[in-house]
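Please produce the structure of this protein holding adenosine-5'-triphosphate.
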Amino acid sequence: MSISHLSPNSSALEEGAPAMEGSFVSAVQLTKQFGEHKAVNDVSLDVAKGEVISIIGPSGAGKSSLIRCLNLLEVPSSGRLRIGDATVDFDTGTPSKASVRNLRNYTGMVFQSFNLFPHFTALKNVTLPQMRVHRRSKAEAEERAMQELKRVGLESKAGAYPAQCSGGQQQRIAIARALAMDPQLMLFDEPTSGLDPEIGAEILQVMRKLASDNMTMLVVTHEMEFARHVSNQVAVMVEGSIIEQGPPEQIMTAPNNIRTQKFLSAVLGR
Amino acid sequence: MNDFAWLYDWPQYIPDLLPGLWVAIAMTCVSCLFGYVLGFFLALLVEAPSKLVSYSALVVVELGRGIPILVLLFLFYQGLPQLGVLLAPYPAAVAALTFSAAGYSSEMIRAGLGAVPKGQSEAANSLSMSVVDTYRFIVIPQAARISIPPLVNLTIIIFQATSLATVITVPEIMQQAGIIGSATFEYMSVYTAAAVLYLCITIPGAALSGYLEERMGTPKQRSKKQAIKALLPAAGKLRTAEERQLTN
Ligand SMILES: Nc1ncnc2c1ncn2[C@@H]1O[C@H](COP(=O)(O)OP(=O)(O)OP(=O)(O)O)[C@@H](O)[C@H]1O
Ligand SMILES: [Mg+2]
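Below is the modeled complex.
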């Protein structure tokens, strides 16, 4: 137990709603509606700098919708969102292009289906966004790209096209591409679901390293081992709402919500 | 006079028809250039979120595709002057061909744009790339692989359709052939020469289109292994669907 728990002030804080001030990401009452259906229903979420939060839950719970709301691939129907110094209020109409850009610049995203650009080599996949968005020179962008490709163990694949790389390699290139943009929050949407388990392990290894480098991460995952051992917090999502959130050990071993228990017994086979 | 003389006579008319060929080629180039650019923007407008914009664009596309080029030629050349718009034969022909090319090409371009997976522009978005950059570097190059072979075919069809412009006195191949024919009465030879000139363009054009289709159309790099991999996300979905049943 940390020292701060001994001080009455901070323990009061921990018991109440997550602290707004110290958090790096703060989503307040986000709702995303598709027609009549609320894929994300009044979700509030705070993420501290350097924190890794795993989002778990059954299919169709709205996990993808939630993290897509965080980089505005889906524009929430209502609520507020702050990442770093960028704030967007969705209650007051469509957000401006500039505010979308500000917010997005904080984030990087890794998709289940990799989404590498198939007509570019691995290197160009990583350099082009840097050159177009951050206006880096080709030399600068390439130096940075090689750095990131090295970080994911793929500097040898720089000249290869995505079709010449395995799924696991493609996903690692996609991670390098996102990292080269200097994100401060990395969003992962089931990054290993399309891969064989042993290949998925490579990806999880890269993510583990990223977590230990203090990257702030939100990870939608079915990998309970990862959720348990790498994340600081696990959020359980069911039918558009986060029904329970807490330290992984507590969620995994002593969940409070009956629906969490049901979900876990289904995926863990207990 | 020998009935078969035209078999060896026709090549002598080729030189007289060449100026007409250049006119036909020029009309094709200009009409397709303007037409495909217009077709591209029509394709974007058809996909626009606003229903009004989308339907208006679709109406323009359907007019371009639905009205025969011959009718368009008469509309632009003889119809418009009644509304105070006087077009010389050449601009009127280019306008008619452009309109038709725009309508047909926009559907081909739309098919190409639609075939680029949504994940591609989402990835570009997630990297903060602008809409224009996303189209320029990510979507259009991939759509082009799908759209270019049919656009080459359309270019051949437009080239053939330039022959219709003879009815509004554009001095293209058929116009020239008609003039020579009525002076010499050697219709068989002259029109054979004209046919050969068209074939000189259309046959290599069709070969080019076939080659491009083969090179661009089929994703050959895609190995069996990757095809199986592509199915795996679906397998993942099955698993999660099971979970859902269990948890409900
Ligand atoms: N673009 C969309 N249009 C309409 N409905 C959508 C859209 N995207 C998601 N939904 C619906 O929202 C709900 C939540 O979907 P979402 O993809 O966020 O779930 P998920 O938790 O990520 O599921 P999975 O584990 O299967 O990926 C589903 O009912 C889905 O059908
Ligand atoms: Mg999902």
